[in-house]
Amino acid sequence: MISVDDYRASVTELLGRRDPVRRPLGECAGLVLAEDVLAGVSLPPFDNSAMDGYAVRAADVAGASADHPVELPVTADIPAGRTDPPELATGTAHRIMTGAPMPPGADAVVMVEHTDGGTENVLIREAATVDAHVRHAGEDVAKGTVALSAGTVLGPPQLGLASAVGLDRLTVWAPLRVLVVSTGSELVVPPAELRFGQIYESNSIMLEAGIRALGCEVEIVRSVVDDVDEFRRILEPKLSGTDLVVTSGGVSAGAYEVVKDALTGAGVTFSKVAMQPGGPQGNGRWQGVPVVTLPGNPVSVLVSFEVFLRPAILSALGHTAVSRHRVRARLTERLKSPAGRRQFRRGYYWQLEGEVTGEVGPRGGPGSHLLAAFTQANCLIVLPEDVTEAAEGSEVDVLLF
Ligand code: AMP
Ligand code: MG
Fold this sequence. Notes:
Layout: H1 4-15, E1 20-24, E2 37-38, E3 48-49, E4 53-56, E5 70-78, E6 93-96, E7 108-111, E8 121-124, E9 134-135, E10 146-148, H2 156-164, E11 169-173, E12 177-183, E13 187-188, E14 199-200, H3 203-212, E15 217-224, H4 228-235, E16 244-248, H5 258-263, E17 268-272, E18 275-276, E19 280-286, E20 289-294, H6 298-316, E21 325-331, E22 335-336, E23 342-350, E24 358-362, H7 371-374, E25 379-383, E26 389-390, E27 395-400
Parallel strand pairs: 5-6, 12-15, 12-16, 13-14, 16-20, 18-23, 21-24
Antiparallel strand pairs: 1-11, 2-10, 3-9, 4-6, 4-7, 5-8, 17-19, 19-20, 21-27, 22-26, 23-24, 23-25, 25-27
Helix pairs in contact: 1-6, 3-6
The structure holds adenosine monophosphate (AMP) and magnesium ion.
């Protein structure tokens, strides 16, 4: 048997690191920046008003108050987008809107709320200090500096900043094109009718959702019968253009193990990993394409995804944080675990007010066919290899989804 950590390392090594690609900003969400982004412009690019109001010289309104307003002629109107703001002469005001460029000569903005809003002349009821409500060029980002560094995960603020400094594309680690394959002659794809002895296929849907959420492209083949020739006939033509094949089912110890039968000796190594669920695993290269073969039971599939595939894919995509957040929690009931295997149980974790350590309760038994309980879980409870029993109230490791 191979350890969980060694097996994860082998899957991570198999997937390696992707090549960098340039992509439109709209297709970069969730991906990782492959190189530093330098700001081609300063942000803001020019001094501008932070408020709707009047651009003035602070000295001209130094004595203004509600009781003694200062009246100034309004000599220009500067809406946002105006590119030629005229110079402000001493003793005058320009009406100005938020985001509009400060006119040369002005050094402060008086909010419209502190004036009578006049368009010919304006009564100013409050004094302004130099720089009041002025946003200075470069105070957010200075031109030529690193706006986003390599390794940044691209979410809304990062993509917004890329656009704000004038970019329409970014260089990211290329997402994988993943082929997800469910095997089993018993599988039926909804909504087709189910006959006795058949079940509805669910693994490919789970894997597709999980892998897409990491930013990868996914094609699914939902039911390949347990026949080696059929398996090869359907999948071989799809290998080109695929960066990773993920199969489920057909890798355990019985007869009709189609994945094992088709890929043994074809570059894929099958192992037994010291874990529960998800013991039977395989990975390697089939005609040069990385293949990860997962067991068939739905809970085993999800646990294998969490423990092996998710971290390996994240690492291939350039993420440095590839593990789930791990916390300690007190068990609300006793759990048993097989000796020599790391057990992953679905759990629900919560934190009590004012306490540092949270609590966790199992959801569903250890059976790897119990999918419904997974839908109530927000974490995996990890029981180490040397633990055969964890008492109620004892502290365990929890991986938060
Ligand atoms: P196997 O590893 O192929 O022996 O499958 C183990 C168990 O998982 C069997 O009960 C299968 O019917 C079930 N199973 C395999 N693949 C799927 C699937 N795609 N969706 C739902 N159940 C599956
Ligand atoms: Mg099967």
